[in-house]
């Protein structure tokens, strides 16, 4: 097992697209085992922040660190080597492969391989494959989908695919897990299950950065909430503090 990670820290991060500052001086800190909610109106910079942390975008200013290590390298796969895993707003699933295969892929992404290289190289050795398969079955069990292991992924419902994506991300045994609107399109029952799952993951020591529109889920399960507005941090604090924060209430919660 990898040594306990330090805190994930963003310090004054700026990224502009053609002159428009999508995020403008964002500070953010996630501790191991913490569920950290990132909320804000549409266009406030939530996804951009997540894309910067996961290595999809390079910030033009600022500093990002995990413990004492700077996070600099550009490729998302290098982030995986640091123990940072993510899911996407739209699940990225290989429809023709089984659910189990989709999850197994998560365990083989490393600092060198791209998603495609990883898929084509799978399996390299029988022993690796057995080990990988075992881990993937455990990951599916953790998200409650073990009964769908051998189904073709394109037969699953959208909501089920969200859980498959989380299972795949768990295969990296991530120090930090970044979730981009995991509750979108889920029923209230499924959102409850998602909330319990995220909390169970955090109790194992994984820090979770959660971008989410469902305010209830955010306030139920987060230890800390950061609110973005126009690419800047409007407020940061416990759910109890954020709920009553004047500017947040008027800018975002609409009460
Ligand atoms: P949120 O996730 O909070 O809805 P985003 O991070 O998607 O916000 O967007 C923040 C701002 O950056 C918006 O004004 C958006 O239009 C802009 N933006 C985001 N991604 C891009 C991009 N790839 N190219 C140009 N502008 C972008």
Tell me what you see in this structure.
- The longest helix has 17 residues, at 126-142.
- The chain is built from 10 helices and 10 strands.
- The chain has a 6-stranded mixed sheet with strand order 6-7-8-3-9-10, sandwiched between helices. Strands 2-1-4-5 form a 4-stranded antiparallel sheet, covered by helices on one side.
- 37% of the residues lie in helices and 23% in strands.
- A hairpin with a 2-residue loop joins strand 4 (61-66) and strand 5.
- The protein has helices spanning 46-53, 76-82, 99-106, 115-120, 126-142, 158-170, 188-203, 215-221, 239-243, 246-253; strands at residues 8-17, 20-30, 35-39, 61-66, 69-70, 84-86, 176-180, 207-211, 224-229, 232-237.
- The protein folds into 2 domains: 10-83 and 174-255, P-loop containing nucleotide triphosphate hydrolases (Rossmann fold, 3-Layer(aba) Sandwich), CATH 3.40.50; 88-173, Rossmann fold, CATH 3.40.50.
- With 255 residues, the chain is α/β, with parallel strands linked by helices.
- Adenosine-5'-diphosphate is lined by residues 17, 20, 22, 40, 42-48.
Secondary structure topology:
Layout: E1 8-17, E2 20-30, E3 35-39, H1 46-53, E4 61-66, E5 69-70, H2 76-82, E6 84-86, H3 99-106, H4 115-120, H5 126-142, H6 158-170, E7 176-180, H7 188-203, E8 207-211, H8 215-221, E9 224-229, E10 232-237, H9 239-243, H10 246-253
Parallel strand pairs: 3-8, 3-9, 6-7, 7-8
Antiparallel strand pairs: 1-2, 1-4, 4-5, 9-10
Helix pairs in contact: 3-5, 3-6, 5-6
Bound molecules: adenosine-5'-diphosphate.
Adenosine-5'-diphosphate binds next to strand 2 and helix 1.
């Amino acid at each position: 097992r990898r040594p306990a990670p330090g805190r994930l820290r963003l310090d004054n991060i700026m990224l502009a697209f053609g002159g428009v500052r999508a995020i403008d001086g964002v500070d953010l800190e996630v501790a191991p085992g913490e569920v950290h909610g990132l909320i804000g109106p549409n266009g406030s910079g939530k996804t951009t922040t997540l894309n910067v942390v996961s290595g999809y975008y390079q910030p033009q200013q600022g500093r990002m660190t995990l413990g004492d290590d700077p996070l600099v390298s550009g490729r998302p796969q290098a982030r995986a080597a640091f123990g940072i895993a993510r899911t996407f707003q739209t699940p990225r699933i290989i429809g023709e492969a089984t659910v189990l295969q989709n999850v197994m892929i998560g365990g083989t992404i490393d600092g060198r391989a791209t998603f495609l290289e990883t898929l084509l190289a799978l399996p390299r050795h029988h022993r690796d494959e057995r080990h990988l398969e075992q881990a993937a079955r455990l990951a599916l069990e953790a998200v409650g989908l073990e009964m769908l292991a051998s189904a073709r992924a394109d037969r699953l419902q959208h909501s089920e695919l969200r859980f498959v994506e989380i299972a795949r991300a768990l295969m990296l045994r991530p120090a930090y897990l970044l979730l981009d609107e995991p509750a979108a399109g889920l029923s209230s029952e499924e959102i409850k299950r998602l909330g319990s799952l995220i909390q169970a993951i955090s109790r194992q020591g994984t820090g979770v950065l959660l971008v989410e529109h469902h305010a209830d889920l955010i306030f139920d399960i987060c230890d800390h909430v950061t609110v973005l507005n126009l690419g800047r941090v409007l407020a940061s604090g416990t759910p109890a503090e954020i709920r009553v924060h004047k500017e947040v209430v008027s800018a975002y919660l609409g009460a």
